[in-house]
Design brief:
Elements: H1 3-18, H2 20-23, H3 29-34, H4 40-56, H5 58-68, H6 71-88, H7 94-123, H8 128-141, H9 147-157, H10 159-178, H11 188-195, E1 204-206, H12 212-216, H13 219-249, E2 255-257, E3 260-261, H14 262-288, H15 290-310, H16 315-327, H17 332-344, H18 349-378, H19 382-401, E4 412-414, H20 415-421
Antiparallel strand pairs: 1-4, 2-3
Length: 424
């Protein structure tokens, strides 16, 4: 079974260029506004539409992965995100950008994300937190490698040139990585039942696989869904708005070290921390349990957001605080998929997590156009940040006081007992 780790490596590599679709976006809005395609709140509709389609089609993508495996779907996703950026480089209207970046890019990115996360959940029932975190880390940290090059191209040749050049590069990389993806063979279920005994006693796992319909009838799904909306909103707001935030406070042009501005250095550090936090917290949750991990991480994230608010005009502090905010936000993309696999099993993991992942799309409505509109009306970011912090505090309390206490309809067992009854 060692080769399952090589499949995991391919899944991570496919996510790295996919990360630009979401995490490099913040470099573009100010330049697009300057070119007259629309005001900030309208341009950020592109981000919201992208995230909505990236998330809301993932249940269908997950169903396809459950049926046909991840390889062909990921290849299709790579083609779509490549076309998305190349075509976006030619648009002359906001409508064109909405279609090519928001619609085509959102569909392609969602296919890649859903297929690679499902791959980790299916192959690693014994290490769901860690491996889902590693795949999600590719999406979270991947843009760290390209933020400075993309910013350089934008400043020297314009945002259209950046879309064109990096669209080709990221499409090719995803397609090559996809060739090495595969679904577990039919006989893997017995193997999975045997290896799941390694799971910590603090992690509860279902003794049966639940269909999407069965999952939707459980109260803990809806508690988790609301929590994901609350936590996702703050992090996505920073993802979409960090460039405009830095511009509004003047730190976007302040050179701090190595010839990099505070904004570019913050983006690089943020992407790295946003990536490495996912396997770290995934591993922690494998040891102490998902709900306990959520309570700690989401609570600290609330304070990190308030700290960032207090230092928006201080370049060095801005870099450090934004890094902290992303470190305690990115882990949601390992904790939620791992918990979905734990609670509702391996067989329908792609579809089930796809349904949960749509919560990110709901959060993007707040994070993109609504947050930008509040800034335009209030001429500042204070209310936006306070709302985001409060949302994280509510989610943290919900994890420990509500989610952990809800009686579970399906028979649940601890990880150390799973092998005794042959369940996953």
């Amino acid at each position: 079974m060692r080769w399952r780790w090589w499949i995991l490596v391919a899944a991570v590599l496919a996510q790295i260029p996919n990360a630009n679709m979401q995490y490099a976006w913040t470099l573009f809005p100010s330049h697009i506004v300057k070119d007259g395609l629309g005001k900030l709140s309208r341009v950020q509709e592109v981000f919201a539409l992208f995230v909505l389609l990236e998330t809301w089609l993932v249940p269908f993508d997950g169903w396809l992965v459950d049926k046909f495996g991840p390889r062909l779907l990921t290849i299709a996703g790579g083609v779509l995100i490549g076309i998305s950026w190349v075509a976006a480089s030619t648009v002359q209207t906001l409508g064109g950008l909405l279609f090519w970046y928001g619609v085509v890019g959102g569909i392609g990115a969602g296919i890649i994300y859903g297929a690679t996360i499902a791959t980790a959940l299916k192959w690693f029932p014994d290490r769901r937190g860690l491996t889902a975190g590693l795949v999600a880390a590719g999406f979270g940290a991947g843009a760290a490698l390209s933020v400075a090059p993309i910013d350089g191209v934008i400043n020297h040749a314009g945002w259209r040139a950046a879309f064109f050049q990096f669209g080709i590069i990221q499409g090719i990389i995803v397609i090559l990585a996809a060739l090495f993806l595969a679904a577990p063979p039919e006989g893997f279920k017995a193997t999975a039942a045997a290896i799941v005994k390694r799971v910590s006693k603090n992690v509860r796992q279902a003794s049966v696989d639940s269909t999407p319909a069965e999952m939707l009838r459980t109260p803990h799904f809806w508690v988790m869904y609301v929590m994901m909306v609350l936590v996702g909103g703050g992090g996505l707001m920073a993802t979409a708005q960090l460039g405009p935030i830095a511009k509004s406070t003047g730190v976007d042009k302040v050179v701090v070290m190595w010839g990099l501005t505070a904004l570019v250095l913050a983006l690089q550090i943020d992407r790295v921390l946003n990536g490495i936090t996912r396997p770290i917290w995934g591993w922690i949750s494998d040891q102490i349990g998902r709900e306990n991990s959520m309570f700690i991480a989401f609570g600290v994230q609330g304070f990190a957001i308030l700290w960032l608010l207090s230092v928006l005009d201080k370049p060095i502090a801005f870099i450090i605080a934004s890094g902290a905010a992303f470190f305690f936000w990115g882990e949601m993309y390992s904790l939620f998929p791992a918990m979905v696999g734990d609670m509702w099993g391996r067989k329908y993991a792609g579809t089930n997590y796809g349904l949960m992942y749509t919560a990110k799309g709901v959060a993007s409505i707040w994070a993109g156009p609504l947050a930008a509109y509040m800034f335009e009306v209030q001429k500042g970011w204070h209310t936006v940040f306070v709302i985001s912090a409060i949302a994280n505090f509510v989610a943290a309390l919900a994890a420990i006081l509500v989610l952990k206490r809800i009686p579970l309809r399906k028979p649940m067992i601890t990880g150390q007992m799973a092998h005794a009854i042959g369940g996953e």
